[in-house]
Amino acid sequence: MRWSSTRSSARALGIIIASGILFAFAAFLVLAAAPQKHLSVYSTAANYSLPIVQRQGRDYVGLLELLEPLGSVSAKFDSRRWRLHYNNILGEFTVGESRVRIQGREADLSAKFFFENDRGLVPIDSLSSLLPRILGGPVTLHVESDRLLIGSVGTHFTAAIAPEDSSRLVFHFTAPVNPSVSTEHGKLHMTFSREPVLAPASPTLTFDSKTITQAKFSESNGAAEIDVTTNIPLMANFSPDGQTITLEPSKAQTAAASNTAPPAPPQKLLAPSPAPPGAVPSARRYFAVVDASHGGSDSGETLSPSLAEKDVTLALARRLRQELENRGIPTLILRDSDANLSLDDRAFAANNARAAVYVAIHAASSGHGVRLYTALLPYADEEDDGPFRSWSTAQQSSLGASQAVLASVAAELKKQQVAVRGLTAPLRPLNNVAMAAFAVEVAPPGLDLSQLASPDYQQLTMSAVANGIADVRAQLGMAP
Q1: Taking phi first (over 0 means left), then psi (-120 to 50 degrees means alpha), and beta for anything else, what does residue 328 get?
Q2: Angle, vertex CA 122, rays to CA 121 and CA 126, nearest 5
Q3: How far is Cα 179 from Cα 8, in angstroms, rounded to an integer?
Q4: What is the pLDDT of residue 391?
Q5: CA angle at residue 388 from 382 to 389, to 5 degrees?
Q6: Which of 63, 84, 214, 239 could form a disulfide with 91 if both were Cys (CB 3.0 to 4.6 A apart)?
Q7: 243 vs 199, 328, 390, CA distance in Å?
Q8: pTM of the entire predicted model
Q9: Average confidence (pLDDT) over 229-256
Q10: Angle at the Cα of 319 from the Cα atoms of 444 and 164, rounded to 5 degrees
């Protein structure tokens, strides 16, 4: 009996241990699946996000990291005291205490201060009272969504059914936006993770339409979202200035695209030569083709924790299109949404548009100013005189024109005091394009990477590029 009792006890102990292991494993899976929380910060100087950490059941954020993009900041730790200088403001924090001193005046945090791994951590729900003392201006904290607005930087919007078509919903924003767009059955989602989009007077907007019934605003985990309820598939179209988004039936969009899009060649091995003299031009003519690099699952370079290259290139491309159109230059953007396009697809679309100039847009975190590239072509053993050109050297006959455009654009950038270099590189799809073609790679003007998303810097660089293209327009002529 004693042996039986021991075996029963061992069996019970094994069950307890196994249950404990399973519980721990399940807890680990839950924690692993939980998304990392971030605080999104919006200001006139920069938009960025910071990781949130939990201490004693409360959300905390690094104060030095929060202030760094906003001004001159430094900190020093001595024993239990952490001294932070922001511009001319001194803050004194003591580890384990909630009482702090800002410029000699005492203030209270909602929980105690932590110092870990050279980081001073403050509770997020104290930022709305702490930061105005340091920054000297208003701060709005959205605690429920971890969004922090410094100054009057909020982006407002209106939404209304188009008067001429009840199946189209038009959003107008007070500043340019570039949301990610996704769809599911009966819904279209627009997620604003980089713009301080604010809720309208009522978070739920209803419409007198049989196809689009409502739009609901919400915010969480550092982002705002607008969910549109619809009984038909919708597609989002962006205006050149990024301040208007029109949702319309995807069938209509597909039909429109089928009327203007050129047929895809059966093989991606050859690039078509320019049409012979006397050929009938297409119904719609573009002088310039602007190509925002990357897109979709290809994010390009991670410029900062909150800034992907694909988003910067799209914003730059839209701005360049607007600048060119303002100068009377018809312009086509190959990627006007967060879509996947292969390099071959881009080259074929550009060649089939038969424009005069192709501009590829890139962004980089290294270096300063703008780098301009023309194609570095592979060696060709024989002349390319047939009815079709080799795909890898399609740029050959246009290389002189490409270099002329590059020189003109470089001159305009120098006029604006923008650092610029002209280079050659085997940068696809430049060598596959049968027209004047060059690439623009925009880097920040200084050490602040957030300047890549600055509307002023984007305007400065793209206006200069547009001027450079306009100056040689007569030389380029129009593709036949």
Answers
A1: left
A2: 170
A3: 61
A4: 73
A5: 50
A6: 84
A7: 16, 21, 42
A8: 0.49
A9: 78
A10: 150
